[in-house]
Amino acid sequence: MIYWEDEALNDREKIFEYLYAVNPLAAERTDELIAVKVENLLDHPLMGIQRASVRGRLLIIPEVSMIVSYWIDGSTIRVMRVLHQKQQFPGLER
C-alpha cells in the first residue's frame, strides 16, 4: 500500500499547478510519471538511496528532475515529500 502524507500531496499539487500554467500536457505527464515511479516501490521498496541525514530513502526520478522522500513502514510505502532536485530537503546537507 502507498500512503501519501499531506505534505507530499501538497508538493505534488504545487508541481502540477506550476507546470499546468505553462504546459498542461507536461503537467499531466509529470504527475503520471511520479505516480508510476512511486507505484514501482511496492515491488522494489529498496530502490531509493539512503542518506544519513534524511529519514527513509530518496527515489530519484531523473526524467522530470524530481526526488521523492519515502520510508518503509512494514508493507506500506509512506511518501513524505516530492521536490524538484534544485530544492533542498530539510536536513539534507549537500
Question: Could you describe the 3D structure shown?
Answer:
This protein has 94 residues and is α+β, with helices and mostly antiparallel strands. The protein has one domain (2-84): YaeB-like fold (2-Layer Sandwich). It is 36% helix and 29% strand. It has a five-stranded mixed beta sheet. A hairpin with a 2-residue loop joins strand 4 and strand 5. The chain is globular. 21% of the residues are buried.
Short recap of the structure:
This protein has 94 residues and is α+β, with helices and mostly antiparallel strands. Helix content is 36%, strand content 29%.
Q: What is the CA-based Rg, rounded? A: 13 Å
The CATH architecture name reads 2-Layer Sandwich
How many separate helices?
Answer: 2
Low-confidence stretches: none
| SSE topology string | EHHEEEE
Shape: globular
Number of strands: 5
Task: State the domain count.
Answer: 1
Task: Briefly note the CATH topology name.
Answer: YaeB-like fold
Within the largest sheet, what's the order of strands?
A: 1-5-4-3-2
Biggest beta sheet attributes: 5 strands, mixed
How are the secondary structure elements laid out?
Elements: E1 2-4, H1 6-22, H2 24-40, E2 49-50, E3 57-61, E4 66-73, E5 76-84
Parallel strand pairs: 1-5
Antiparallel strand pairs: 2-3, 3-4, 4-5
Summary keywords:
five-stranded mixed β-sheet; globular; 5 strands; YaeB-like fold; 94 residues; alpha+beta
